[in-house]
Structure formats: C-alpha cells, structure tokens
Design a protein that fits this description.
Elements lengths: L9 H9 L7 H11 L4 E4 L6 H15 L12 E4 L3 H14 L7 E4 L6 H8 L4 E4 L1 H10 L9 E4 L2 H6 L3 H8 L7 E6 L4 H10 L4 E4 L10 E7 L5 H12 L4 E4 L3 H13 L4 E4 L5 H12 L5 E4 L14 E4 L6 H8 L9 E7 L4 H11 L5 E2 L41 H4 L17
Parallel strand pairs: 1-6, 1-7, 2-4, 2-5, 3-4, 5-6, 8-13, 8-14, 9-11, 9-12, 10-11, 12-13
C-alpha cells in the first residue's frame, strides 16, 4: 500500500513525498481511513511506529474538508494534548512539515518559557494548537485561547499524561471543549485508567492496535548486562569505546544522577550532555540539537524525555538504571528502532534492580537476553539494597504539571511495586512520525 491509497489530498501527498516517505506504517494504514470517516478511535501503538503521522495526516485532510473558521475569531479548530514539551514540539514539527502546502496555522504552547510570545501567536489566529495541559490551562485562565469551536481533539501518549498526574488538568480542559467533536486517543500502553478515560471521552470508538499491548518493538535488539552498581560507569565507558558508539541515549532514574553521570563522562573524555525537567527549555532544546548533530556522543536523560526524543536511526539506548515503572522501559528503548530501523537497547542491571527487571520481563512477556561480561561480573556477596527514587522523573519539567506529586503514585498496584514472585527489518521509507 502507498499513501496514494489512503484518501489524502495532493498537497499532503506532495509534502509526504518530500519527507522521503513512500509506504505507510501499519498504524497509519489502519488509523488514517478510520479517522477520515470521522470516527473516534482508541489506538494502541508502540512508540516509533509512525503514530504521529497516523493522526496528523488525516487531521490535515479533514480540516480541508470542513468549513473554514475565521482566524480573526481566535477559534482553534484542532487541539493536540501531549505530556512533555519535547513531544509537543515534535508533533508541531510534523504538522508543519505535512501541512506546508496548506493554509493552516499551527503553534505549540508549553511551560518553562515566556507566555507572551505564545499569546501573540494565538491572537493572530491559529487553526491547530499542540499543548501540554498545564500551560494550556494558563492560557484558558488568561482568556488568551478560545476552545469553544474545537472540532478535533487528540490525546497523544495518554498513558504518559495520566502517569504524570495530568488527569485533573485534562478534565478541566475538557470542560472548555464542545461535546460535538471527533476525539482520537493514542496510548502506547493500556491501564485501567486509560480504559476509564476512553469510556468517558470517546463515542463508540474504533479500537486500533498494531502490536501486542505493552510490547517492545521486534527490531530492537535487547540485552541485560549484569554488573555491580559501583562499576556501571566503567562498563558504560567500555561499551562506548569498544563499540565505537558515536551516538547513544542513556537513561538514569534521577535528575541528580543524570548530572553526575554527564560530568563523569566528560572527565573520561566522552562528550555528554544532560536533559531533564530541571533544565531550562532553551538548555533542553540546545542539548537535543547538539546530540542530533553529533556534536556530543552521549545524551543522558531522565524519563521526562522518554517520549519526546525523535532521532532518525538512533543506534543505541542504554538503561544506566532501570525505571521503577515497568512501562517506562518500553518507552525508553522505543527511542531506537524507529520507523522500521534496527536498534540496540542495553540495560546495566545491578543486584538492587533484579525485581524491576522481573517486572519488566513480565510486562513485555519475554525474557531479555543476559550477559555477564568478562572483567565486569558482579560480586555475588553483595546483597540488594532499597532503591532511592529521588523524584528523578522530572515531574515539574513536563510542561506545567500542577499535580507533580502524583507522578510517583502507581496507576495500579503493580506499576511501582516490585513483584515478590520470582525480526525482519521493516521498510525504512515508512513515515517515522
């Protein structure tokens, strides 16, 4: 199947071609025709499967088929909610790229930056707004945005928004939206909270699922390296140098840990930069840009960045520390193996993290291959110790979260609490966003 068979207009097809994409991904093949029928959808898709294009392309098409609102009225026609600034920026870039030959204006609004430039853009009239919930509520409170005429609502990474404690913000936003609208809910993982939200929000939705729920992408080669906690940095440096890795995304559990590891890597001659919720938006943007350009070899991130980093053909992801929420593992490693490309995800696991590892394998329903590297085998006499969470998932950095304490609460009992119980390469021309 090609994009020509999906009912998209010539200007959109031209933009897709210029982006270098010829064949739609499975989520795009399934979602686009249903969305164009103006149906609500509940879509389950792994990160990196092209779901952003799966909703931006039909959204742009539907805007061309419905009566155009007067921009001077300040009415927004489409609203996309995302959990993080980075993801909001990524979605808005996709809208800009695919809609470059259409007359629609879009903008992105999130916290951590001055609000006045956003107000100026909104006053000029915007068709599509991509926003994080907290900053959107700021605009609603200041009456600088009008959502009474929204025709399309998209919740991207809905599970992440709930996990970050945005549910109350989302409910407040929904009160400002008309009841008669098309709603699209995308989630990489399912939980009872997601099902509740979909039941209350969606009208007879079509269920679209292109991969097993909570699965990890088959094209990602996964491995667990068992190592003592105090030797993780040494092993990481060994892997980077021996593998001649030029670009690697490393996840830590805490912001402090990200800063510390970045400084240590720099001292060891490996260029590194950190990105997390305590960094200013300008610093986060620059760090990501430098990493994409290859000016630094290692980007050290907390989970705030797990769903907002979109890098073509990123070859390596390393879990320097396993996440305490198992679903975050899926999102972390999903930064590689995007758009059908192959990738490698390595986890450095000490004795303290064995229960987290068991929970992750239970979630993804597979055993991750284990490696005991010569010279780095763990000391069997070391006993496990409780892990200090340290609030490192960056609650306040996700774009205006007003309920940050709830981010570390599990959405169900199994999410944060460790358990006590003991492929062919896809077509790389597919749209990756």
């Amino acid at each position: 199947m090609s994009f020509n068979n999906l009912g998209l207009s010539a200007p959109i097809l031209k933009a897709i071609k210029e982006q270098g994409y010829t064949e739609p991904t499975p989520i795009q093949q399934q979602a686009i025709p249903v969305i164009l029928q103006k149906k609500d959808i509940l879509a389950g898709a792994q990160t990196g499967t092209g779901k952003t294009a799966g909703f931006t392309l039909p959204l742009l098409q539907l805007l061309t088929q419905t009566k155009h609102q007067d921009r001077k009225s300040h009415h927004v026609r489409a609203l996309v909610l995302t959990p993080t600034r980075e993801l909001a920026t990524q979605v808005e870039e996709s809208i800009d790229n695919y809609g470059k030959y259409l007359p629609y204006k879009s903008c992105v609004i999130f916290g951590g930056v001055k609000i006045n430039p956003q107000i100026t853009k909104l006053r000029k009239g915007i068709d599509i707004v991509v926003a994080t919930p907290g900053r959107l509520l700021d605009h609603i409170g200041q009456k600088t945005i009008n959502l009474s005429k929204v025709e399309f609502l998209i919740l991207d990474e809905a599970d992440r928004m709930l996990d970050m404690g945005f549910i109350n913000d989302i409910k407040k936003v929904l009160l400002k939206l008309p009841k008669n609208k098309q709603t699209l809910l995308f989630s990489a993982t399912y939980s009872n909270e997601i099902k509740k939200l979909s039941d209350s929000l969606l009208n007879s939705p079509e269920l679209i699922e292109v991969a097993r729920t909570n699965a990890s992408a088959e094209q990602i080669k996964q491995a667990v390296y068992h190592v003592d906690k105090e030797r993780k940095r040494e092993l990481l440096i060994h892997l980077i140098n021996e593998g001649k890795w030029k670009q690697v995304l490393v996840f830590t559990r805490t912001k402090h840990g990200a800063n510390r590891l970045t400084g240590q890597l720099d001292k060891d001659g490996i260029t590194a930069v950190a990105i997390h919720g305590n960094k200013s938006q300008n610093a986060r943007t620059k760090a990501l840009a430098d990493f994409k350009k290859g000016e630094v070899r290692v980007l050290v991130a907390t989970d705030i960045a797990a769903r907002g980093i979109d890098i073509d053909q990123l070859p390596h992801v390393v879990n320097y520390e396993l996440p305490n929420v198992s679903e975050d593992y899926v999102h972390r490693i999903g930064r590689t193996g995007r758009a059908g490309n192959e990738g490698e995800a390595i986890s450095l696991v000490c004795v303290d993290e064995h229960e987290y590892l068991r929970n992750i394998e239970k979630l993804i329903k597979k055993d991750i291959p284990k490696v005991w590297l010569a010279g780095f085998k763990p000391d069997p006499s070391i006993r496990p110790e409780p892990i200090n969470q340290g609030g490192g998932r960056g609650a306040k950095g996700g774009g205006g979260n007003r309920n940050s304490n709830s981010r570390n609460r599990p959405s169900n009992q199994s999410r944060n609490k460790p358990s006590n119980n003991s492929s062919p390469r896809a077509n790389s021309s597919r749209a990756g966003r």
